[in-house]
């Protein structure tokens, strides 16, 4: 069954109305109390001392009925406060349970890149059950990561997607945003206690991968903060190395035929200027110049140097010179009043509206910060799926592999000695070469063919299968990782009462 989103307004409203009427009068009253006049479902801060019945009411209030053909899925959404006591910073989430045997499947936290893009992008266009084509038709994506995991799509850091801060103050460091996500998870797990002591996977692509290592490092260093067992981390085309070490694509674009000698020299010169600004402790100006060089965050009407030299309107993929129509279609729908009502978001709130403010805040304290030590700590502490993309013009795969090979982690020697193998995926009963893979120690390192920086968009089914394989890979590893036990104590590793 397929449906045009712009012709289905009445169906969406009827579905939402029927769902509301199915609730008990008490639950509806509680739902109305939580649902602010603005239309945002702002869940209150929780602690371990809140009565179970109150938490159950929050859970019921957050229940949503997704549009057909995913109306039968159990889904929940809302805003969770994550700052100290001010309740000014709220993270938006959409949680979808696996339809089959959800009680036996791990929990996966998905964070998008950008920085500042909503995780709804991943849900609709990459790996979620509710897909959308270029015309706006909704369809049931099969397979989806929901077949393997229970998924939480989280707009993080604050300022991403629908997440917001009432004071307009956004995280400027990875550490600050990681604290927010830890608080979100603790409060989420109180409302959804079935996931306590469940296996947890943290996943993200591009800047989302940076968020993932920041969160994973905090869980590893303070395992009592979270009542979950961190089982693995998925890092796709990740911003996890020093930025100027991996984003300088002058040589890659030259050998791909997109730059001539003059263009390569211009590109290389610009990156030298950016490096000089960084060395002069001027990250704000360095970030501005970077946006004028690559990426797609420059002011409208002012093409980047990449666009001027190549004629490309998109920086994600060396064989696609313009953005897909699906991106605009997705934005129109995800930002529509009808859909916002379904997911408990105010009709006046705009998707990705504060992305530029967040990006500038991060430019000061995070964009040019070296988080190699954080990545190494994660590699030493938990299984990692690390994947790059053959056609990525943002973080070329050759830059990524060179940077990874220079890391000093527990499996470094094994990684250098391991010969990569071909990786095949069955499509329509045919065995297709999809990329190359190395497995060393607790790391699965994969390069995907025919995909760019939006790797899960370009190769949705393949990445979903990669996640399934990684889950099997982690199942074969010894059960002695972080979060499994506290010393010789076999009891769960978290305190009885912690307020975060």
UniProtKB/TrEMBL annotation:
Domain of life: Eukaryota
Pfam family membership, one: Peptidase_S10
Keywords for the protein's UniProt record, in alphabetical order: Carboxypeptidase, Glycoprotein, Hydrolase, Protease, Signal
InterPro entries associated with the record: AB_hydrolase_fold, Peptidase_S10
Gene3D superfamilies: alpha/beta hydrolase
Molecular-function GO term, any one: serine-type carboxypeptidase activity
Gene Ontology BP terms: proteolysis
Signal peptide region: 1-24
Family under the similarity heading: Belongs to the peptidase S10 family.
Official protein name in the record: Putative serine carboxypeptidase
